[in-house]
Design a protein that fits this description.
By secondary structure, the chain is mostly helical. It contains 13 helices and no strands. It is a multi-pass membrane protein.
Amino acid sequence: MNLLTDLLSGLMPFDWLEPAFMRRALIGMLFIAPACAAMGVQVVSFRMAFFSDAISHSAFTGVALGLIFGINSHWTMVGFGVLVGCGVLVFSRKAVLSTDTVIGVFFAAVVALGIVIVSARRGLSRYFESVLFGDILAIDSNELWIMFFLFLLVFLFQAIGYNKLLLISLHSPLAHSRGIKPARWEIAYGILLAFLVMISLRAVGLLLVTALLVVPAAAARNLARSGSGLIWWSVLIATISAGVGLFLSYIWGSATGATVILVSVFFFICSYLIRLVMGR
């Protein structure tokens, strides 16, 4: 990754990219934002925004558990989030309750558990600022490698399963009749989404990670004319938003994650106006 950051310095000799941490932040955003945008297409199709919220809020408990047991809190945060995601997916298929209700129960449980742990150990609260707001400027080379492999994994998964997931979202019984196993694909997608959400907290924080998934995909829906166009528009909007948002955050001195999301929202508004003008 050091070679990539040095190469970026030669290819883009801008003042705002002169600090090494800014180059790492740009590379990290260019890994995370497109990956979230690609997965966000199904988040919108499957109406899973509440699911990603529940996963992201489990970060409180995951970090607290790591601090209590003396384990790297980044790993306990990710591990606990994926565990919660698996629990939601498995339980929602077995329970007679609606999926939203199951997610609501898990959401309440993980948030309440996190608050209980933090309130009982008051000294822990100072560790949660980066979880709430993200801190992409502080990532290191090891985290960049994780983001890179996650980026590859997401796009490999989409290359193999995008059409299958699209058919499942449109008509699950038809997908099953064609030999596709909706349950297996939904669970695999949910686990990968949970892992992506927890890693993305580093970039934009708990409060905005769902927006990183939903907003580019929502903008793409206003512009795309085909299923494949939906994912490519979403990825393009997220990638441009990542670069422009990072630059504007440097100029304004604002939070990077929030600025990236605001740029994405700007693109959504533009896409909506385009859709109105074109009458689609």
